[in-house]
Amino acid sequence: MNEKPKRKLVWRLLRWGLIGLAILITLAALLVTEENWRGKRAWENYQREWTAKGEKFDWQSFVPPAVPDDQNFFTAPVFTNIFNDKIKMTPYGNDGGPDFHLDASRSGYAIYRMQMTDLTAWQTYYRNPTNFHTVVGFVMTNGVMIEQTNLLNHATDEFPIAPKPQTSAKDVLLALSKYDSAVEELRQASERPYASVPLDYGRGFDAVPPLIPYLAALKRCTQLLQLRVTAELADGQSAKALDDMKLSLYLNNSLHSSPFLISHLVRIAIIAIDIQPIWEGLAEHKCSDEQLATLELELGKLDFLADYQAVMRSECAASIAKIDDWRQHRNDVVLMSFDSNMENNDEKSIWNKISHTMKAGGLYLMPSGWFYQNEIAIAQMHQNWSVRMVNAEQEIVSPKIIQQANLSAGNTHTLPWNIFAHQLLPAIGALTRKASQIQGQVNLARVACALERYRLAHGNYPETLAALAPQFIGTLPHDIINGQPLHYHRTEDGNFMLYSIGWNEKDD
Predict the structure, then answer these.
(1) Among 163, 222, 294, 305, which residue has the fewest nearby CB atoms (within 10 Å)?
(2) Can you tell me whether residue 136 is helix, strand or coil?
(3) Residue 492's CB: how many other CB atoms inside 10 A?
(4) Which of 320, 286, 99 lies closest to 205, judged by CA?
């Protein structure tokens, strides 16, 4: 075959190849257009149907109203001083404190642990004559980790101490007196009628990073108040201890109106800290009847199950808003930025993982219709699973539904149109468990306050919990796992055992 026919054949093949490619591109464009139209229509129909049933998917409907700065707890001057480091409200020195453990740093230094706080250890810590504490660490130098020894100021450089040792409680209270004026500023600020962290809530999840410093500050203040309350109880200052405990409970409640799940996770961490001195005060019979009644009333205001229902709905709307933002700005998907030292990173790490997956996997190229399908999947996940895990009206949590949700996540393939819901669902079950566990502890603390009031009135604990209501507690809370009465019996040493069944739903 000569060169001329060869060229004709090549050009003919090239032409048909180009025509075929054009046809494929046209078909792909038609398919994408069809998928975009189908996904958008499906989401609009779904949204219309469930909005008529009372559901809300618009993030703006969950944005809290703006409040005047001079009436807002979070705009009080004490927070300005905390954030500019004029006040660092923490019981620790630079070296972490006597009960600081690196392996427990994620859960916090002072969770409810059913052992008395060692005030003598704190006294020794504050009175330690050593001015410097050696800390061995590793630093990155020219790309290599090199061991380095640092000298940090010890607590004695930061906290006041008496010339001669006093009781452990008095020495601890003296050390913490450096924060007396700041605590009083917090107490005065708590009298303001509103508590709303000043954020641009309209930005949805993008408003979370500026929220983190407030959450961290509240947790540190709670740790300080916990140690202060424990020392006040040991020093016989039960009235002051009650005032500080009420302030600490207020710090938790100040986040009640926040529409972000991370705020409620921090609330759970704060209450876990608060329960420790409550348990100690009850164990050592440090409180009067009036103080116990006040404390039980304050604890009775906490309803983490109802709050869970509310925040799950706002979380659904925020997730949908974020996905829709990614749909519109898919080429600008970036990792969400959070403080790695801030605990309760469950939700944040999930969204970091999702956004990283989008960048690494090239999902920013997917059709708009798949984003809409993901919005439907998110809404269905919350309606089918997260909202059903908790029955706020009956105050019951269902471990079975949580197990079913986890099985569903494990048996469902991750696809481009369900990737967000698929990755979020396992975390939702874990978060549900946290909320239910802390509500169970709050309920037990309320009943324990009533039991102590009964003991003060009668000299011993009752044979059954039924004897407590209505004189010592308005209504007895039930076991949130199965709705049955809490388990209680008196022990041979004159104390009592009070507990709820566990997640296996058995009294074992």
Answers:
(1) 163
(2) strand
(3) 5
(4) 320
pTM of the model: 0.82
In this prediction, residue 391 has a pLDDT band, given cuts at 50, 70 and 90, of: confident
DSSP 72: B
Residue indicated by tokens 């979380």: 315
Which residues lie across from 151 on neighbouring strands? 134
Listed in order, strand segments (DSSP E) in 346-464 are 390-391, 396-397
Q: Name 150's bridge partners.
A: 135
d(CA 229, CA 452): 19
DSSP string, 137-174: EEEEETTEEEEEEEEEE-GGGTS---SS---HHHHHHH
Residues 439, 293: contact at Cβ < 8 Å? no
**For 477-501, what is the HEC assignment?**
CCCCCCCCCCEEEECCCCCEEEECC
Q: Summarize the confidence of residues 7-20 as an average pLDDT.
A: 65
- Enter the tokens of residue 482: 């199965």
- The token pair at 502 is 């566990």
- Do residues 258 and 212 touch, judged by C-beta distance below 8 A? no
pLDDT class for 20, splitting at 50, 70, 90? Answer: low
CA angle (203, 340, 436) in 5-degree steps: 75
Query: Between helices 304-328 and 261-283, what is the axis angle to 10°?
Result: 160
Amino acid, res. 11: W
Q: CA 35, CA 235: separation in Å to the nearest integer?
A: 70
Residue 133: its H or E element: strand 132-141
Which 3 state secondary structure label does DSSP give 194?
strand
3-state secondary structure of 134: strand
Contacts of 185 (CB under 8 A, 6+ apart): 76, 77, 78
Return the pLDDT at 112: 45
